[in-house]
Amino acid sequence: MAISADVIIAGGGVIGTAIAWRAAAAGLATVVIDPQAGDAAALVAAGMLAPVSESLFGEDALLRLNLLAVARFPSFAAELEEATGRIVGLRREGTLAVAYDPDDHAALARLTGFRRSVGLDAEELDSRACRRLEPFLAPGVRGGVLFAGDWSVDNRRYAAALRVAAQAAGARFLRDRVSAVRVGNDGAAAGVRLADGSEVDGAAVVVAAGCWSAGIDGLPGTVRDAVRPVKGQLLRLRCPANVPPVLGHTIRALVRGTDLYLVPRADGELVVGATSEERGHDVTVTAGAVHDLLHDAMSVLPVTSELALAETCAGLRPGTPDNGPIVGPGGPAGLLVATGHYRNGILLSAVTADAVAACLTGEPPAPEWEPFAPQRFGALARPA
Ligand SMILES: Cc1cc2nc3c(=O)[nH]c(=O)nc-3n(C[C@H](O)[C@H](O)[C@H](O)COP(=O)(O)OP(=O)(O)OC[C@H]3O[C@@H](n4cnc5c(N)ncnc54)[C@H](O)[C@@H]3O)c2cc1C
Known about the structure:
The chain is α/β, with parallel strands linked by helices and 384 residues long. Helices cover 30% and strands 28% of the residues. It has helices spanning 14-25, 40-44, 60-84, 102-117, 127-133, 155-168, 221-226, 287-300, 345-360; strands at 3-10, 30-34, 48-49, 95-99, 123-126, 143-147, 151-152, 172-175, 178-183, 189-194, 199-207, 228-238, 250-255, 258-264, 269-273, 308-319, 326-329, 335-339. Strands 1, 2, 8, 9, 10, 11, 17 and 18 form an 8-stranded mixed beta sheet that branches. An 8-stranded mixed beta sheet has the order 5-6-4-13-14-15-12-16, with helices on both faces. The structure holds flavin-adenine dinucleotide. Flavin-adenine dinucleotide binds at residues 10-16, 33-36, 38, 40-42, 44-48, 177-178, 208-212, 215-216, 232, 234, 273-274, 315, 317-318, 339, 341-347.
């Protein structure tokens, strides 16, 4: 039977599924196509909603977008919880960034100066004040900074709730691989071709296949060239049952020059991450990465040695040359791109869904999206 829809979404990760929910809720017949169950990177991610502690020199436009994203997240999550009856675990305690040695402390001070200079909240704390906030921190920690503007969410619960909400709103999920975007005689997108050669018709196609977006024919070459996989390895530790969680805040630590984060959940899980590796599509969990993450975690939070090692995992962030997402119309009329969310795909999922739903219904997306259009990587030739 021939399938057709108003909107076809290639990729059912957190981005494609968030878009599917908003598109279906807007009354559009929506089909999500993914060869897997979806949520590839979202199942691995730590769930930080961290515009402040992720902000770096030279990424002002991304900071503005991330601030829009964190401001939008609570109402989006509340609507999601109401639509599904599921709790997604939004937490607003802030991030405590700590420094392990004097060089780490100097590096943290430089970053804090920059963050203050762009108007972000940062409360400097000495070692004792850090341990008053988080008593399990190592006494040797040099000091830290509380970034109150960072939050977190339980990304696995969040991704699962998005799928339930999208389905309840009427979106259909097909287990298949999109091989190409099809273009009609009028030069506009007409649907997609699947791996077995069959076709799905639709006047709008959204490519949201994360780091695999580059493999979909018909996407403009400049966009395909811009997306690459960046491997991240991460651990999930677990506190013993009936013992309170060992952390109240997300901790970002600089440990002998290496970045580390520890993200607590209310249920006693503690996420420890992450590596950042250029290894193509490899998702092997390596002994060295597990060793290094545990070693650094024990340096700042010795009690981690007592916790159960519940899971090791690796995922692929969809990276881009400027670390920003690629969202908006690209190539033929009706083709939309929503990829390249790199380290912030959970954070950006709600505002990406808003932006794509706006494009689909003829509204302008928020101005913060302007610097992240697909055209920034060069003129977009019409796909063959
Ligand atoms: C270790 C790690 C930690 C992270 N921590 C955070 C964090 O704390 N906060 C945060 O905001 N972000 C974090 N991220 C980033 C975030 O997880 C990603 O940016 C986000 O999940 C990307 O979602 P996506 O839907 O674009 O891509 P993906 O999750 O990669 O999903 C893409 C989907 O497309 C499907 N697909 C592939 N090819 C095709 C095809 N040809 N046709 C159809 N479908 C296809 C795949 O099967 C997959 O389901 C982290 C990522 C990693 C790896």
